[in-house]
Here is the input.
Amino acid sequence: MDVEQSLVAARTVLEGLHGFQYRLPGQDEVYEQLAVKVQQGLVGEMILVNGAPGSGVTSCLENLARSYPRQCIMLQSNLYHRDMTLTDRVCDAISMHCESESYKEPPAWLIEHAKLTGLKFLILDDLDEYIVCAKDIDRIMYEVSALVGWRGAFTVIVSTRSMKLIRRFIKYNSPKQRDFWVDGIVSLDKLDAMGAEFFHWNNQLLKLNIRWGGELQKIKYDFDFQIDSVMKFFELSYATKMIPTLKSELYSIRDGLSSEALHYELLQILYQ
Amino acid sequence: MSFYKSFISERCEGESISSWMFRLQCSARRHPYVGEVESCRGRSIASSRQDPILSVETLSQTEANSTETNLLQDYDQGLTPAMAQAFAERNHIPVSLLTPLCVDKPFDDLYGHAKHPKGAPWVGTAIIPLHHRCSYCYQCVEEGVKATGLPVVQSCWRHVLMPFCSRHQTLLYDVSGKLSLNEDFPAAVFKFHWNRTFAVTRIDEHTRSDITRLRGAIRVQQRLIDLWDGTSDDFQRSANLGFVLTLFRMVLQPTYEWAYSKKEMFNKGGQPSVLGFYSAFYKLPLRATAVARARALFLVGLILGWIDEDEAKAPEFWDAFAPNCASVIWAHLPYHGPLRSWVRRELDLYKLGIFSRESLRDTLFGW
Here is the structure.
């Protein structure tokens, strides 16, 4: 691999386009609890799934939608469909939407469709993507509560990072409201195995043979073992190792360079 | 191809081609080949992203694609390879999925067409044209939703002599005539039913109160199906169908409108008086609602002697003035005007089957 190809590959890893996903125990726990609800067919609930960035909230919800395609609909936000209400999006997801009609509340036929097909679990990942301005928060909360409580046909599973929405959600305080937290902390004893897995994944992806080992001893533990910080460290390590000619310049890691500083330096090298 | 087979459900038994193609379209939209889930006006966002700039030209092209659909194409009356190719290109699906349907024998050829010896081809059709299709069986639609997630429309609902669902033995409902040309007709039917319009309630009431006549009409429909299925000769089948169709058309003419609940007779198409006699003779039955067609089938059963007159005289509180014997029907065939002679002429054209004017009950003396 020449320098140019190495640069492209290193950028791919550094930009997080490698697609590696580490499944944390917390993610599995939340997934199992949600799966039980889906299997039992409990409707009329509003469920908030939250977690630190990178803890796998989206993966958890995607897995749920993939495992139970006959029960769950994963709604997608679309930049071009800002005028659509949440109910319209549900209708669109089941291919029963017409451009000329718009629903603020679930129509009778939608409730019947849910009963007949069993598609009763609506998954809304990143609810904040549906919000353009402040007044949309009220609208979204009204629409979610209409889907959940109007005729009690659906359970809505929501994830969001908007604190305003989370506050509104908690304030809503319905007896049928449930909160789940996906724990994104990586335990120290699993770091090494996770790193090896990350390197193996990328070696297969990029057809390289970069070996994992020794990185943990070199680093200064300036991150808090949140999954996103750990992943960032792995990406930095891999990208660093991919440029043997530049390696000497990066030995400053031994001098206690923080990961943020290392990232900045690496960016300068790779994107010059 | 295998990618598509993984999520496309099979065509249901008796499902119309247009209904299956609608489901195919929905599946292709939900699982586009390029891997994006959402779409924007019939075109996937991913393919929009491939354009370097979403320029005015691109937008106008997108608009053109969205209005490209020819709503007047009736896939159920025979899907040609050209139509299949256009549909496949528009929805980004392999044309090989549709190729088997192109050789499928259209419903029209099976028992939907009586070859008129002298008339134009459309004269003999018993298939309701696309712009007048309105009837549906809710139970079939419901079963389709359960099985496939989307409503399913059966092809036999467009046969003018089949106002009852042959599977569930129920009177078909009618949607508003405005929905006939909708590309998403199956979805529109499901929505219409659950909007609980007055039409649905009224047909439920009618079914409850007019049950005796409806039972008679179901028997007539079943007997006709048995007759067509039992006749191997196409010529015989065509002649039988033409004969029954002529009687059916006769009892749906304005002369007999007193025999129907008037508001339930026509769903779409304006006042019958707008049409000339010959147009009205052939076209009115195609515009009639399932309720009116069921009543007409009952009257045809009386004329053919397939319904016992004692049974027909059973008291009904819904529509007390409806004729309950063949002689009353014949008595109201006007002496003057073209209807009488035209019916006679048509019946004579189709007498080569098992039916003839002489075999009809209480037929007119010297007719």
